[in-house]
Specification:
The complex is a heterodimer of chains A (124) and B (340). Chain A is of the alpha+beta class and 124 residues long. Helix content of chain A is 65%, strand content 15%. Chain A is built from 4 helices and 3 strands; from the N terminus they run H-E-H-H-E-E-H. Classes of the chains: A alpha+beta (124), B mainly alpha (340). At the A-B interface, helix 2, helix 3 and strand 3 of A face helix 2 and helix 4 of B.
Chain lengths: 124, 340
Amino acid sequence: MDTSSNSTPDSQIFDSLRLELRRGCLIVAVLAQLKTEHYGYTLRKALADQGLAIEESTLYPLLRRLETQQLLTSQWREEDKRNKRFYKLSPQGETILTQLLAEWNSINGSVNNILQNSHAEVIS
Amino acid sequence: MNTNTTIDLLERYLQAIGQSLPPANREDVLNELRANLTAQIDDREEELDRPLTEPELAAILKAHGRPEVVAMRYQPQRYLIGPSIFPFYLLTMRRVLPFVVAIYYVANFVKIAATRNGIGSIAGGLVDSTFQLIPVLFLWLGVMTIIFAILERTHESCGKKWHLDEWSPAKLPPVKPQDAKKRRSLVSRVADLAFHCLWMAYVIEVPRHPYLLFGPGYSFVARLQVGWAPVWHTFYVALWFLLLVQLGIKIANLFEGVGRWRTPLDLTSKVFGVVLIGWLVSAGTYIVATGPGTDLHTLAIVNHWIGVSFKIAMLFMLLDIAIEVWKYLRPHIPVARLAF
């Protein structure tokens, strides 16, 4: 999903705007994915498998931040003879995720309406 | 992942991250990173069906990110002056900077004028002052930044104590009348011309009626047995030339169509005025003895302080010109270059 390419001014602008656009979406995706328990690496793989690649250096600190905000809970547990920190959506996280998804759908609907209206204006 | 070399490289990487992490959660973060990286390495080794070589592990670590940057992302966002305070910081710096420079130059010029004689020496002093201005500006910048950094900390710890979001559109200043600013009213221009004529009449009468200059103190000055130095005769002619030029400009100002030439003409006449004052400064002697009873020591002191007053007047005229030039050129400078 990496669409960044050369470093022309246009592509730099696109990369910067894309980063802004993705920032909020990633949080929603991480919260949604953590309805089932994951540790950092498997969460990253699960997101990548569904087309949402995210850098480790972005994802792992984000998990910590979301846990500090009490949207996630975590626990150290042994798996395959190794200790790993597993994260899961907290009840408060569930509530916030529901609100964020409602906001996401509202924004999505508005943008679609704007695009349809502008398309109709161009045709007429 | 079982070779000593790869384990050593991973541990060195984690150690480098740990050096930039706060002690409170260092071990916890490093353990989590170790678990995630180890899982990633295991996955890759499973794909390749062999242990990773050192360059392959190095590539994974490099993709994970530079240790300092990775560590920084685990810490809360840090800044000296945050986005809510920064606009006020920038605005204050822009508003205060001209005053700092002006006060600095006035103070230095008074000091230079009182201690040095001759245009060359004064000019040298001003050049020295300009070089000394750079550390002064750095110091000022540092002090202002510290003040605003303290405000930032106080603002963060006191929540909405500073009420920066509270403002009323009704309290904004009225829109500046741009056209009126560019073109003064006819009444103002006529009044300007009238005052200039009165000023010329005054200049004509001063040599014949010295009490217009000295007021009630003239009788005292008359007893001192002193007179004007020859420099004033030349100065008087030059002053008349300047006043006539200014009269021409002010008359031309009454008519439409000279608006865009007004500022350059005003500036030219002001520059001529500075040259005149500069010439007076270089003269050094303004009052001379006309009789045997004159106290020459006192006369020297009076001449010195007249010279100092001309130097100070010259500074203010130079500042005035600098401000006028800035105002004139500012609309022609691209906005991006005014961004500071």
